[in-house]
Amino acid sequence: MSVPMLKIGAVLSTMAMVTNWMSQTLPSLVGLNGTIISPEGTHERIVSGLYPGSEEGWQVYSTASDPDGRCVCTVVAPARNLCKRDPRSRQLRLLTEQVQNVSQSMEVVDLRTSRDLQYVRDSEPLLRGVDGRLHTYVANPRTLTAKGLQELKGQMSQLRPLLSVVEQYRLDLQTLATLRLELLNLSIILTAIQEEIGAYDYEELQQRVLLLETRLHSCMNKLGCGRLTAVSSPITVRASGSRFGSWMTDAMIPSSDSRVWSMDGYYKGRRVLEYRTMGDFTKGQNFVQHLLPHPWAGTGHVVYNGSLYYNKHQSNILVQYHFRSRSVLLQRSLSGAGYNNTFPYSWGGSSDIDLMADEMGLWAVYTSIPNAGNIMVSRLDSRSLEILQSWDTGFPKRSAGEAFMICGTLYVTNSHLAGAKVHFAYHTNSSTYEYTDIPFHNQYSHISMMDYNPRERALYTWNNGHQVLYNVTLFHVIRSDG
User: Fold this and answer.
1) pTM over the 0.85 mark
2) Are 62 and 47 in contact (CB under 8 A)?
3) CA 314 to CA 296: how far, in whole Å?
4) Element spanning 64, H or E
5) d(Cα 458, Cα 393) in Å, to the nearest integer?
6) Which residues pair with 468 in a beta bridge?
7) pLDDT at residue 37 above 70?
């Protein structure tokens, strides 16, 4: 194995051991096994926006991006009476913040290293080829021709990006050394806290934790729906499949389902791959296959409450396929909806009917001849697929690159190609529209699927054979108790 590969292995091995220690040991030491401390894979930095103070209402912070472009909104519920003056509570709170920071930093390093490791592995055959040719030329210089030299220069140019990858590994090794030191300090503090907590009534502490969790959930319920104000930089999760396709997680709130589904292609596809977790999807492992009884059309599929909803090929029929029972639960025609490339998005691909979900439930985006090809939005009953209410947005569907729903508002991009931006928004709660100018980086220049997941507050996209995530920044309205 080459030296760079050994360094990479050391980085991954160290991160795996430290992450495993933290996930198994820290929660039990501080007595918070059942408490969710922070969303996974985020690296928060508070930058602005303090609303009424802890004595008056709720504190809402907006956050900037982490090294991979993630953006998070954090809500802090004030505990006015309970544990407020308890020094143990403050000590535990400060400790969990330190643990959170270390965990987040390691998540960032882990994601970046896994991604770059795959790049190095892909480059290894080319590196071996160059090494073999150099040995041949050294052993017999007369075999070196002008053409051979030119080919060798081309191969070396392809390998040049490896330099920046190796340099990043050096920096990551320094980061891991710092994290090791932080973990050593945390371990000493945790031991002291564990001894101190042992002198108190554990049941009392657990009750306090449960009450704080209840107050946090109450605070989260105070958050009204948000309006899109920004889209983060893209996060490439994986490169797989063809140019067109869709991938998703369950959009139902609340849900603990961690599965990921992938559907390659837009024409007459029937094979759905189901991965246990996002980590498995990233690595392409631990999946099962579902063979749908009816082929799909387009890429506008959505998973909601354990079922896949999709458009049946060469029809305007919507199908509900239940993953656990591997059976079709329901089929219903979307009356009047165009299909088979009658009214697709600008990229074509039988994208006439686009199913999606947000905080308010299940939606269908489509158009028909009577409404002159303008985008129609219909809210659907997920149990019967009946239309509950419809809106004519007035925006021509063939001029839209893609569309997605957030909090009952339809957002439309002006293109599926490079330079695309969120150009139009239709608010179903007021039946009004506005033109927007929200840019985002279309990294691979051909988006064939873009859907919002309300559980993760993220946009899932299929971009030219790459599965990409965007985090979103939402302007939130805080509802008072009145």
Assistant:
1) no
2) yes
3) 8
4) none
5) 24
6) 236, 461
7) no
